[in-house]
């Protein structure tokens, strides 16, 4: 059974390798159509308190249609679908149906006020595992992507953390999402930071990608959903980085993802991740 599952994953990854440029083109086209208008946008609050705009829905509709045309046998799970549809799509994914997991606009809070830090994130999951992912930042025209076992890329240039200098935690730039962290952890980081400096950019997918690009070296977020991290986590790991949750459980690409919200801790290399986790867990 496991051998058949691995064979299916390898076959699916080969399929997407041939079609990855088409997916990247689709993501770019949809983003250019909807996300480069500038200015403020009308927005509503969802039941979970997050913002949603008409652009979120338009982006998701266009991405879903484009993916269905290219991959008619694949499933689709988008952030703006209702919960019942999301749960049904996830069950099909775990049963073996290749499924596209999409956040059509990651960083809606930024987008709605014209702050130019947001992204589109698209991931292909097979058996609950990510085999291909794209994160596109239209404001900077930066497209990150990765395929399982085939590395991570930024606008056609290979991303690799292997030869980057191994920085001590105290010299690192961190991305920290304070509001979703346990209070004691957030207080410790704010009052006695173990890093050199901290930022919070407002797009989970870009947080992951900026670690992969070595723009920041460590990252922590208290609660993110499947569509937030599925592509970014793959991009970081394929670049040579490492990640875990706040409980210290390491992430592995051959482990199925979970549909429930989870914490995320990431670093440019595993030794730095261990130091970072030590600081975070000392206060949790």
Structural description of this entry:
This protein has about 280 residues and is α+β, with helices and mostly antiparallel strands. It folds into two domains: about 1-160, Fructose-1,6-Bisphosphatase, Chain A, domain 1, CATH 3.30.540.10; about 170-280, D-Maltodextrin-Binding Protein, domain 2. It is built from eight helices and 14 strands. Strand 5 (about 120-125) and strand 6 (about 130-135) form a beta hairpin. Belongs to the inositol monophosphatase superfamily. GO terms for molecular function: inositol monophosphate 1-phosphatase activity; metal ion binding.
Topology:
Layout: H1 2-34, E1 44-45, E2 51-52, H2 54-70, E3 75-78, H3 83-94, E4 99-106, H4 108-112, E5 119-126, E6 129-137, E7 142-147, E8 152-154, E9 157-159, E10 173-177, H5 183-191, E11 197-199, H6 204-212, E12 218-224, H7 226-239, E13 242-244, E14 262-267, H8 270-281
Parallel strand pairs: 3-4, 10-11, 10-12
Antiparallel strand pairs: 1-2, 4-5, 5-6, 6-7, 7-8, 8-9, 12-14, 13-14
């Amino acid at each position: 059974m496991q051998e058949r599952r691995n064979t299916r994953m390898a076959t699916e990854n080969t399929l997407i390798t041939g079609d990855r440029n088409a997916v990247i083109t689709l993501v770019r086209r949809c983003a250019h159509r909807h996300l480069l208008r500038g200015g403020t946008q009308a927005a509503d609050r969802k039941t979970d308190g997050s913002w949603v705009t008409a652009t979120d829905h338009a982006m998701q509709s266009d991405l879903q249609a484009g993916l269905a045309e290219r991959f008619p046998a694949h499933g689709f799970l988008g952030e703006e679908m209702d919960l019942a549809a999301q749960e049904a799509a996830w069950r099909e994914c775990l049963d073996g149906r290749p499924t596209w997991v999409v956040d059509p606009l990651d960083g809606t809070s930024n987008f709605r006020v014209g702050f130019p830090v947001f992204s589109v994130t698209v991931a292909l999951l097979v058996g609950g595992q990510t085999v291909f992912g794209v994160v596109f930042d239209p404001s900077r025209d930066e497209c990150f992507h990765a395929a399982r076992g085939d590395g991570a890329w930024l606008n056609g240039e290979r991303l690799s953390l292997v030869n980057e200098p191994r920085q001590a935690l105290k010299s690192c730039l961190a991305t920290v999402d304070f509001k979703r962290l346990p209070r004691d952890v957030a207080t410790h980081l704010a009052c006695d930071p173990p890093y050199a400096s901290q930022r919070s950019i407002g797009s989970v997918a870009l947080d992951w990608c900026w670690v992969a690009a070595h723009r920041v070296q460590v990252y922590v977020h208290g609660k993110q959903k499947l569509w937030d991290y599925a592509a970014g986590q793959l991009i970081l790991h394929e670049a040579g980085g490492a990640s875990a949750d706040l409980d210290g459980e390491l992430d592995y690409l051959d482990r199925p993802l979970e549909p429930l919200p989870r914490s995320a801790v990431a670093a440019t290399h595993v030794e730095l991740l261990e130091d970072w986790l030590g600081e975070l867990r000392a206060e949790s």
